[in-house]
Structure formats: C-alpha cells, structure tokens
C-alpha cells in the first residue's frame, strides 16, 4: 500500500509514540487526541475497511484495546471511562483508510460525544425485526461464501 500514514508508521518511516506492539498489531498515541492518553490500535497488515481484514487479524485488536484501556485507567491520566471507537468508511468518519481502533479516555465534561441525527428514536419491533432479518440474511450469505459462521438454526 502506498501513501498510507499508518503503513509508514509500521515500517518505521514515520514517527509515532508506540505503546504496544506484537506480530499482529501496534498501538500508538493519536497525534490529534480527544483527551490525553488517546491511543490508536492498527493491524500490521494493511486493511482499508473491516471487510478487508480476516477475523484472525481483527479479533486481537479488541483484546489489545482491553489491556490498553486498563493501562490508561491505571496511568494517572484523567480517565473516568473509556470509549472504543472504530470508524469504518468515510460516512462513519474514517479519515485514515487503514483500519484503526481508538481507545479514548473519557471524563465528565470533556466535550466529546456522539451527536444523534434526526432519525434517532425508539424503533418499533417490526422495524427492528425487518432490519434484523436483512442483516441475518446477509450474514448467512457471507457464511456460505466463507464456509461457515452463519447463525445456528
């Protein structure tokens, strides 16, 4: 992959304050942190979107996030809670097109949070069932292609 800032960090061609690394992923300080202690966890193998990454690469990212969130809480940095955030695609707010999981220390009054759009409301059971059925059908189609992992019936 060319012109990927995160790939440059992995290759050692761009500076980063690396906090954790193993064969699958690295974690480093976010250059534009929401709050002090904001970390990014990235897979070593370039993947633009979650769908480009296999589960063997993706699953450890969450385990690393759990360990780092606990470390941030113990660090003495202001941290009353932790957000884990992953934007998958431009419409979701992804700015660097290499999968990355944010570990964001939070505290009351820090000014960060989700804004809810005009469609945010409690949905009817029929709306939820219809959307759920569509997702389940897509999951099962994907399982047929990938050789498993659909729902059990």
Describe this structure in words.
There is one protein chain. The protein has 153 residues and is α+β, with helices and mostly antiparallel strands. It has two domains: 5-109, HIT family, subunit A (2-Layer Sandwich), CATH 3.30.428; 120-153. Helix content is 32%, strand content 16%. The protein has helices at residues 5-11, 55-74, 125-146, and strands at 18-21, 25-29, 39-43, 81-85, 101-106. It has a five-stranded antiparallel sheet with strand order 1-2-3-5-4, covered by helices on one side. Strand 1 (18-21) and strand 2 form a beta hairpin. The longest helix is centred in the C-terminal third of the chain and has 22 residues, at 125-146. It is globular. The N and C termini lie far apart (41 Å). Mean pLDDT is 93; it is low at 148-153.
